Amino acid sequence: MVLYFFTRMDIVEIINTTENKLTAHWDGTLSMRLPNSGLGSIYPQFDTKEALKEALLNAKWVKYSHPAIGGGAVGFKAELPGEVGMISLDDLNNNCEVRLVDPKQTGFLSAVVDGNNYVTSSFTVMIVGDNDGDLVVYTFHPGDPVERSAITGEERTVTVSQARELGFGLAKIELRN
Q1: Does residue 160 sit within a domain?
Q2: Which residue, of 4, 35, 40, 132, has the greatest Cβ tally within 10 A?
Q3: What is the pLDDT of residues 81-104, one digit of tens each?
Q4: Burial class (CB in 10 A: 0-12, 13-18, 19+), 81
Q5: Residue 1, in any domain of the structure
């Protein structure tokens, strides 16, 4: 694995391009990483999108390779802690309920379970790629990336066993208060 520093100005430009070109996507990505956003990985130390954005802009990013980063995308890693909101289906009872949903309207389903068993990560990964000739932020989150879902179908509720049979290995945690 080769790591090297990517200039702060490059990251600032990529984030600003994302914010200006893909405003709804950027706003949604920031919002979903705030505490009590409800679904997936979070940064409990930030109360606002502005504070989280500022932390991303000021982090020291290094280029980062990982097998789950593909399709022409590039990964970056920074020492920015957060909480991973993913759980292995192997850690759950076979009869637990799993909701299959498409929260980002991508056409691909995500497995979701209720819980609060987040795992702390000391680092953040940002995945960057091309959008009509500009580099933009596809996503960022605490911890290592996972393979994107390629599973399609209708949103529904199934058991852990059924979710595994469909090809799911992980589920996003949805915090229920």
Answers
A1: yes
A2: 40
A3: 999 999 999 999 999 999 999 877
A4: middle
A5: no
